[in-house]
Amino acid sequence: MRILSGGATDVGRVRSNNEDCFRLVQPLNLFVLSDGMGGEAHGEIASALAVETVVKHCMDADTNPAAPLYGNPAPGLAAQTKRLVSAVHLANRNIFKSAETHPEQSGMGATLTAMWVNGNTLSIAHVGDSRAYLLRNGMLQQLTSDHSLVAEQVRRGILSANEAEQSDMQSVLLRALGTQESVEVDSEEQALFSRDLLLLCSDGLTRMVTEPEIAGTLQAETDPQKASERLIAIANENGGADNISVIVVRLENESKGWFSWLRPGGRKHASKNGTAGGH
User: Fold this and answer.
1) Which end of the chain is more exposed for a tag (fewer CB within 10 A), N or C?
2) Least confident of 54-58, 99-103, 224-228
3) How far apart are CA 220 and CA 229, in angstroms?
4) In the prediction, which pLDDT does 204 show?
5) How far apart are CA 76 and CA 246, in angstroms?
6) What's the rounded Cα separation, in Å, for the pair 252 and 250?
């Protein structure tokens, strides 16, 4: 399949700095997004460190499959999924150690959601409340579970979904990178088909834009870069209460014709860095 992708980030209309970070590594079909937390404790450093650690670990393994694995990935996972989970464990370790070494960074942390496409298989690794979605045949499906207090209360029946959306505790995370020496990493594998569409986003999008609005925008705008930018614009129109980061990935049947390389995007491009701070 041919894979097209685009991404964007924006500070929003309330915050003074952007603690989000994302990266498109198009040669590997690897997509990584992180939302830093900590404010003056340098959340932007945590998110940038998370993204760069994951990207480097996966790129290194691409040339050296025998590179060591970190954490204890679940048995039965594909090698690529195990590598992605390992990368997230290493990112957690690096953020935690950085905060130990630099007292001014104490309390920083980050979410991390990453997708790695290999043929018809999608690997996902996830910590926090940034989300991965699949849009297939007009239906939007959330592939990740939020590691937040209100999401856990909804799962236990303590809050309704509507009450959770109105709660002032939405920002309280039960799991994040860098806050503890070790972290539990969720992993998922998903079969992919032509015309599937994937979305990675920080909670700055999902708190401002409803899932029906997201699905409608993704169907209306077929260019992944323009779709990313449009979703951010809608979030800002609805208040822009937080930083907003979006990655959109579209899968298409690959043409076998000799002229296929002439199409826009027909050749792979170098990786695109969406870092918004931390450097």
Assistant:
1) C
2) 99-103
3) 13
4) 96
5) 30
6) 7
Backbone angles phi, psi at 137, to 5 degrees: 55, 40
Task: Indicate the pairing of strand 2-10 with strand 30-37.
Answer: unpaired
String of DSSP letters for 42-59 = THHHHHHHHHHHHHHHHH
In angstroms, the CA 259 to CA 107 distance is 53
Q: Is the pLDDT of residue 125 over 70?
A: yes
What is the biggest distance separating any 2 CA atoms in the chain, rounded to whole angstroms? 58
Cβ(271)–Cβ(27) below 8 Å: yes
96 — phi, psi (to 5°)? Answer: -60, -45
Phi-psi region of 112 (alpha: psi -120 to 50; beta: other; left: phi over 0): beta
Instruction: Determine whether domain 2-263 maps to CATH 3.60.40.10.
Output: yes
For the entire predicted model, the pTM comes to 0.88
pLDDT band at 168 (very low <50, low <70, confident <90, very high): low
Residue among 148, 106, 107, 156 at smallest CA distance from 127: 148
DSSP 8-state assignment for residue 69: P
3-class secondary-structure state, position 46:
helix
Q: For residue 106, what is the enclosing H or E element?
A: none
CB 143 within 8 A of CB 130: no
Span 215-231, pLDDT tens digits: 999 999 999 999 999 99
For 104-129, what is the mean pLDDT? 96
Q: Give the pLDDT confidence score for residue 40 in this predicted structure.
A: 65
CA 74 vs. chain centroid, Å, equals 21
Cβ atoms of 95 and 50 closer than 8 Å: yes
Rounded to a whole number, what is the distance in angstroms from the first to the last CA of the chain? 35
Does 266 score more than 60 pLDDT?
A: no
